[in-house]
Amino acid sequence: MIKARIDRLSDNGKQTAGLLSVYRNNQQIFNCKTLELPWKDNIQSVSCIPLATYKVRKRISSKFDLHFHILDVPNRSHILIHPANFVRQLLGCVAVGENWTDIDGDGLRDVINSKATLKKLLSILPEEFEITIVNNYLK
């Protein structure tokens, strides 16, 4: 069975950085970096989503092509895992990338190789799976 988990590692009030890990039969088979909005009480378009376990399904749209849709998020809709480099490109969704760096020199973490990372996730993960989001803040 395949499962995924996002460990949120930091939230500086401007962005949340994390690590997405994929497990098959409880063995980690892939991980990548994540970028989300900061926690702002689950307010639509300005906050990351609540800690929980969610069903996720592959989805196609004209904007993002093939990506993932996180389902049944309380008081939210269209929460996606999609390619993006900057937190300013997010409205509550999760961006994935190979690593963090400050691409544009604004002092915030950005993710690199987002499209390639998403493509790899799409090749590993099934049509539907569960993802658990937890806080695991680094001290």
Overall description:
The chain has 139 residues and is mainly beta. It has one domain: L,D-transpeptidase catalytic domain-like, CATH 2.40.440. Helix content is 8%, strand content 48%. The chain has 1 helix and 10 strands; from the N terminus they run E-E-E-E-E-E-E-E-E-H-E. The chain has one helix at residues 114-124, and strands spanning 2-11, 16-24, 27-36, 52-61, 65-70, 79-82, 94-97, 99-101, 110-112, 128-135. Strands 1-2-3-7-6-5-4-10 form an 8-stranded mixed barrel. A two-stranded antiparallel ribbon has the order 8-9. It is globular. The model has no long low-confidence stretch (mean pLDDT 96).
Give me some keywords for this one.
139 residues; mainly beta; 8-stranded mixed barrel; 1 helix; 8% helix; globular
- Total number of beta strands: 10
Q: Roughly what fraction of the amino acids lie in strands?
A: over 45%
The SSE order reads EEEEEEEEEHE
Overall geometry comes to: globular
Helix/strand structural class: mainly beta
Distance between the termini: 32 Å
Query: What is the level 1 CATH name?
Result: Mainly Beta
And the CATH topology?
A: L,D-transpeptidase catalytic domain-like
Number of helices: 1
Structural domain tally: 1
Biggest sheet character: 8 strands, mixed, barrel
